Every structure is written in C-alpha cells, then in structure tokens.
Amino acid sequence: MYTAFIINQIKIEGLSLMVIIKDNKKVTGTLSSIKDAKGADAQVEAGSVKVTSSDEGVITVQQNAENEKEYTVSAVAPGTAKVIVSADADLGEGVTTITKEDEFTVTAGDAVEMGTTYSEPVDQ
User: Is the pTM of this model over 0.85?
Assistant: First the structure.
C-alpha cells in the first residue's frame, strides 16, 4: 500500500506494509532505515524509537530492551490492527519525528486437532 503524508511542509512518501498472520504466530520487526528527501540515510536519535499496537486485542508489540529498533509482534485474536513505529530522525538541521504504520490482519489458526466421543454400548 502506497502512502504519502506531510510533516512540517515536507512531503514523505513510501510503501506501508500489510501483513497477514495466523492467531497462533508472531513475527519480528525491525526499523531498518530512515531516509531524507534525497534518499540518504538519516541517523535515528538514540532512545527515540517507540513501537505500539493500535489494538492489543488483535496484536501485541514487545520492543527489544537491548535493541530499540527490533520488536516482536504477536497475534492475539482475529481482526485488524496497526503496528505504529515512530523515531526521531536527525536530518542535520534538527530532529524530526517520523511515524510509520503497518497494517496487520490476524486470521484464525489452522485446525490441528479433532476430538471424538462415543456413547455407551447398546444392544444391536
């Protein structure tokens, strides 16, 4: 999904992610880069990365305490929610907060077990 938004009169464009995951799965995400308007890498200000879930009834997010750019998204129940990642980018002339939202659709897990019951024996 292509997105575009404006921060401080600067247009930021890019692709946002849509992830489909079963309700018994989890994935690891990583803030891989922040780019300036010319496509050059911008530094992420240490301690500024925040990752949250828009609906913890659908997905939860656990940020890695040792690497703030890494996080685990765990499915909870079927539905749709967003992972919201924000970080302060040092663009050389000040710091700008950049936010990205990735949509997660959680579906029911596959059937993996079947139970059966039988009645008491009776005459034929």
Answer: no
